[in-house]
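Please describe the entry underneath.
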Amino acid sequence: MRIFIRIGAIFLFLCSLIVAQTSKFGIAIHGGAGLIKNLANDKEKEYISKLEEALITGYKILENNGSAVDAITSAIAILEDSPLFNAGKGAVLNENGIAELDASIMDGKTLKAGAVAGVHHVKNPIKLAKLIMEKSPHVMMIGSGAEEFGKMFNIELVDSTYFITKERWEQYLKMKDTLEKHGTVGAVALDKNGNLAAGTSTGGMMMKKFGRVGDSPIIGAGTYANNNTCAVSCTGHGEYFIRLGVAKDISSLIEYKNMSLNDAANEIINKLSQLGGTGGVIAIDKYGNIAMPFNTEGMFRGYYLSDGKINIKIYK
């Protein structure tokens, strides 16, 4: 009798693994929200092409049974390497004409998180944030200390001039008020094992005071993930996102009020608007539903789910 019980238990366990491995999965990304309109056709194609590349890279990792954490790290790194976005190469410059980079990542399965702020030489801040999450007892490291930690694990460092593109330098000199001062990048994903993850990376705001830190490296403000609810990455005027705890608040509405992902995300964006903040979020819940609300003219965004095609949008 005991043998039959054990066989039955094993059968149920194997069935649960099969279900987990064939469940819905997917990834969503953003490249910043702001005053986006009337982009030239060739420029629009550039943005779409890079967003597509990031989506495909992350999706392939998920498709091959990779983790949500690895998928979003790889997707965000591609956007960090592109001069089109305000993260990594092409990041905006602070008051002193220097790029100061922030990033964070969170694993929805363990609730472990890693964040980095105010670094000047880390080629891919999202990779350093992941290292902090996985290899240190801390959540956040800043400045030179964060870079010293990265050196211990051979994180790729570059000269600070690497981040400065011709366009960003001209913006700095003219002190232009453009979209790119908010052009943060981020990604959220649900893997085949039902694990969620979120990550965000940014250069912050153009002409920010040196040492200023926005919401992107703040867990609960710009980034949050919990397997019980959803994964969220934010973009916009960071001070407002910090005050509202936007990313965690979306998760809390789902957890405590049993709201849908879409309703929760839209409610928080409405709160953001009432406070005077601008920006948007991308989010994916434990069922694979996607929400991407924003209150600006546009937001570079896209998603790729296991049951559909790549979907990329820029305008409302």
Q: What stands out?
A: The chain is about 40% helix and 20% strand. The longest strand covers residues 26-34. Confidence is low (pLDDT under 50) at residues 8-22, 176-182.
